[in-house]
């Protein structure tokens, strides 16, 4: 089974991502000439700096031609972004068009504009692509998970429009637009087509949210008509959760509004061994790709050398594929998967006793 999954991974480049304007073509010659490609790095909060350090070490050993431009979350609110992220940080991503982001903490129910929302909105990161597949050699209940969730990333329940109507009554607006729905649906179908995938499932609750999710589905149907070779289906979110837990092989590519994507992708992470393992990449207008782990800043283990860097490392592999640096991407992906499959060095979340540094060293030794 392990070798079967390995072959499938290699064929599909599951950590691969795609943009309409593939940066790789533009950077291809630079990489071939071994010139350095500049990429933005946000180490982020909590475990972010520790796992970012792992990525930097692995890239160094693998001799990846990337020069990091590091940006930290500030301590004061920048009025231009209304958050602790500075305008210069955002400009760095706009300029480099490619980057890697560690987790960023958001205080619950108060404080500043969420750092993640700021990034998504200011950089128009409209699709979040989260590959989720069984890792060869790491046994969970399921051996054959191989699916991609694609989450609309800019609107829906994350529009940030909340207010008090009267004392004791608050309102939150879920915004769904035709433009954003068509854009993410188009991305999902194009992804399916170019990655040899057969089926796209639109996940919704249009039986209750008839106008908002109804519009989302209408847009997905319109796009589906342009892709007659891809099977299109619609699944209500509650049923989708049950089906995923019962038999994840029922799904291939899933596309959905913002909040559903957040929840479903964490559920999918649970199917394959947890948040420490699942990468993602945010796709923006104009060819921007900002890769990031699905997990948060894990304050409970931050600074203790306990975090699993796999999710961020696999996200960095996505970034390399985006740049068409497939040889480096394959080498790093193989080293990660082989280290986990070998079982000698695993972090605590995978039932092992290795520290972040020991696990990282083992990956470097496999390179
Ligand atoms: N994209 C992001 O930057 C992002 C995503 C989710 C949450 N957050 C933020 O992160 C903070 C903490 O959120 P949370 O606790 O709900 O979720 P979390 O993902 O940080 O942690 C959930 C659980 O998973 C564990 N975990 C997560 N990543 C791990 C890793 N790499 N290795 C080992 N264990 C890992 C944690 O220890 C914790 O037990 C919050 O402020 C939240 O807003 C940020």
UniProtKB/TrEMBL annotation:
Keywords: Magnesium, Metal-binding, NAD, Oxidoreductase, Transit peptide
Pfam families (alphabetical): Iso_dh (PF00180)
Membrane-spanning segments: none
Keyword Cell membrane tagged: no
GO CC annotations on file: mitochondrion
InterPro entries recorded: IsoCit/isopropylmalate_DH_CS, Isocitrate_DH_NAD, IsoPropMal-DH-like_dom
MF GO annotations: isocitrate dehydrogenase (NAD+) activity; magnesium ion binding; NAD binding
Domain of life: Eukaryota
Isopropylmalate dehydrogenase-like domain mapped to chain residues: 38-363
Any GO BP annotation: tricarboxylic acid cycle
Statement: the UniProt record of this protein carries the keyword Oxidoreductase: yes
PANTHER family: DECARBOXYLATING DEHYDROGENASES-ISOCITRATE, ISOPROPYLMALATE, TARTRATE (PTHR11835), ISOCITRATE DEHYDROGENASE [NAD] SUBUNIT ALPHA, MITOCHONDRIAL (PTHR11835:SF34)
UniProt name for this protein: Isopropylmalate dehydrogenase-like domain-containing protein
């Amino acid at each position: 089974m392990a070798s079967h999954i390995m072959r499938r991974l290699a064929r599909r480049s599951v950590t691969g991502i795609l943009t309409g304007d593939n940066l790789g073509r533009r950077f291809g010659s630079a990489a071939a000439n071994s010139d350095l490609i500049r990429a933005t790095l946000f180490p982020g909060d909590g475990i972010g700096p520790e796992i970012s350090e792992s990525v930097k070490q692995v890239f160094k050993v693998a001799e990846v031609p990337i020069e990091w431009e590091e940006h930290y979350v500030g301590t004061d609110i920048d009025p231009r972004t209304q958050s602790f992220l500075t305008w210069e940080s955002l400009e760095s991503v706009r300029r480099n068009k490619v980057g890697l982001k560690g987790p960023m903490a958001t205080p619950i129910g108060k404080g500043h504009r969420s750092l993640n929302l700021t990034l998504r909105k200011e950089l128009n990161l409209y699709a979040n692509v989260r590959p989720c597949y069984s890792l060869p050699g790491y046994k969970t209940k399921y051996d054959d998970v191989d699916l991609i969730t694609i989450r609309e990333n800019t609107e829906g329940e994350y529009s940030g429009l909340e207010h008090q109507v009267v004392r004791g009554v608050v309102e939150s607006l879920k915004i769904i637009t035709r433009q954003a729905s068509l854009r993410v649906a188009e991305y999902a179908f194009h992804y399916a087509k170019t990655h040899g995938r057969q089926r796209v499932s639109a996940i919704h609750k249009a039986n209750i949210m008839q106008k908002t999710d109804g519009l989302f589905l209408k847009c997905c149907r319109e796009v589906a008509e342009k892709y007659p070779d891809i099977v299109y289906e619609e699944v209500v979110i509650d049923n989708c959760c049950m089906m995923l837990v019962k038999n994840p092989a029922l799904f291939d590519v899933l596309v959905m509004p913002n909040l559903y994507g957040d929840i479903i992708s964490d559920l999918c992470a649970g199917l394959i061994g947890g948040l420490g393992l699942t990468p993602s990449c945010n796709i923006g207008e104009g060819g921007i790709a900002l890769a990031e782990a699905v997990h948060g800043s894990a304050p409970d283990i931050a600074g203790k050398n306990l975090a699993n860097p796999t999710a961020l490392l696999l996200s960095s592999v996505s970034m390399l594929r985006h740049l068409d640096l497939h040889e480096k991407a394959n080498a790093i992906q193989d080293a990660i998967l082989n280290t986990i499959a070998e079982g000698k060095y695993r972090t605590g979340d995978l039932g092992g006793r290795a520290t972040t540094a020991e696990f990282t060293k083992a990956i470097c030794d496999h390179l």
